[in-house]
Structure formats: structure tokens, C-alpha cells
Amino acid sequence: MDLFTAMEISASGLSAQRVRMNxxxxxxxxxxxxxxxxxxxxxxxNVVLRSQxxxxxxxxxxxxxxxxxxxAIQPDGAPPRYEYDPGHxxxxxDGYVAYPDINVVEEMVDMITASRAYEAGxxxxxxxxxxxxxxxxxxx
Length: 140
Prior knowledge:
The protein has 140 residues and is of the alpha+beta class. Helix content is 44%, strand content 19%. The protein has one domain (3-138). The chain has a two-stranded antiparallel ribbon. A two-stranded antiparallel sheet has the order 3-4.
């Protein structure tokens, strides 16, 4: 495995974690959204990640080295939670409003986890760059 492959793997992880943070941010921003273009309340979204082979991996690392990619961003399908608020413009005939079933604490944990994984990816990328710089220095 060469250093550029290591950088490519780190970059794929950074991209995936950025998407996770964006989706968690979107979920948090829409925690009170009762009406979307589709007509119902906002649906919490999940990021589905999958591994992908790395073309530059060879030798003993062939097949063992995997990058990550975003396979899909999909709604979680949870039913909405209902709160009684007869004065709300989106209340049904019984006075209940459908809100997205989003747990703010869970979203914050997802965001912190993605942030920490992003930091780890930055560290790995920095190490790969430092190794490449040292390798160039050896050749002088």
C-alpha cells in the first residue's frame, strides 16, 4: 500500500463523516418541522455507509484495505409523535400536531461521534502527509 492510497482512504472517511454531521445537523434543524413539501412532518434521516475496495491496495494488503462511501441517505420511517396544540395551523381535527420523532440527545451523540471520527481521519491524513514528506527527504 502506498502513501497515496492511505491518503485516499483517509479522505473517504473524512467525506463520510462530513455527510453524517450534515445529516445530524439537518435532523436537529427540523425537529419542529410539522409540514414539508410532501405534506407531512419532517422524517429523520439516517446515513448508510458501506466499504469499498481500494484499487491501489496490493500485496498482503489486497482485499484487506477498504475505504468508506455513503451508500444512501434514507428516512428512518419512524411514525411522528403527536402533541396536543389545537391553535397550531397544522393541528388535525382532534387538535393534535404531528412532529418528527427526533431525539435531540441522540442527534447530538451522532454529531459528536462523527466529529471525533473526522478528527481521527484528519490525524491519519496528517500522518500520511508527514510520512510522504519524510520519504521525499530521504531521496534527497
